[in-house]
């Protein structure tokens, strides 16, 4: 199962990727986050103590997180601002920490988390009209660091107005193997 979290302003990129995967008979779910309300993670520790595995702050993450627990591959389609995920995507990504093991451990000199859900691959497609080199590096570094922390496979893809179709085709082809 592949889950696409899409926060592209027109939802176009996420929808196009979902269509490409469905054409290849891959079980896919698109979650358009534009209309969802997710509060920030307050780092209160409630999910590790009070309500183990659940955020004590109720919001639309309650809809998203159970779906992410059942997915094998998480694909984020996000506009890139200052080399990072969009505001809404960052909030959801922070809340996803409750899916991971509550304990860090050291692997190859890095702190990493175990996982409770099935996610084994994380792909982030950053969409921007025009990239500058510093922002490309920042986005790639962010995704690589998240992949290390989550202790899973993954990759960052950079899409702009000229290569969005090719980028989505490359991702769909890679996921169909």
UniProtKB/TrEMBL annotation:
InterPro entries: Flavoprotein-like_sf, FMN_Rdtase-like_dom, ISF_SsuE-like. It holds the Pfam family FMN_red. Keywords: Flavoprotein, FMN. Transmembrane segments: none annotated. It comes from the Bacteria. Residues 14-117 form the NADPH-dependent FMN reductase-like domain. PANTHER family: NAD(P)H-DEPENDENT FMN-CONTAINING OXIDOREDUCTASE YWQN-RELATED. This is NAD(P)H-dependent oxidoreductase. It comes from Acetobacterium wieringae. The lineage of its organism: Bacteria, Bacillati, Bacillota, Clostridia, Eubacteriales.
